[in-house]
Write a structure and sequence with these properties.
With 132 residues, the chain is an all-alpha fold. The protein is built from 6 helices and no strands.
Length: 132
């Protein structure tokens, strides 16, 4: 229903969620930039710093939505990519912060990310309606 109401493809939403998570976890070997996070605290610090950078970029960009992540993966769907990202984070040698969380905590973070996506969709919709 949300996809119809907001006029977007669910696969694109899955893809954008994976872009956001990968951007906030640069210490992950499979997709990171070589940053290190060996402890829960270091991983949290990376996440918070990247999230603050995203917020600052949104503030300086005004109301125009930012550039969405481009599909540069060989996985054939956004859903498959998001599953791959979550699998990497929850693997035995995955994210040190994720390893300390229980399922309920992870679901709370997922809920928070969904609220952020909804806010971003509202921004895009508002921008689109003023530029037509």
């Amino acid at each position: 229903q949300a996809a119809r109401e907001w006029d977007f493809c669910m696969d694109d939403a899955f893809f954008q969620a994976s872009v956001k998570v990968r951007g906030r976890t640069p210490y992950m070997p499979a997709w990171g930039d070589g940053s290190a996070a060996l402890t829960c605290e270091e991983a949290q610090a990376h996440w918070k710093a990247r999230k603050a950078m995203e917020k600052a970029e949104k503030t300086t960009q005004g109301t125009e939505p930012g550039q969405l992540g481009r599909r540069t993966t060989q996985l054939n769907s956004g859903q498959a990519l998001l599953i791959w990202v979550v699998d990497g984070l929850t693997a035995t040698e995955g994210c040190p912060w994720t390893r300390t969380m229980q399922t309920g905590h992870l679901l709370k973070f997922l809920q928070d990310e969904c609220v952020e996506v909804e806010q971003e969709l509202r921004l895009v919709r508002a921008y689109d309606s003023t530029t037509r």
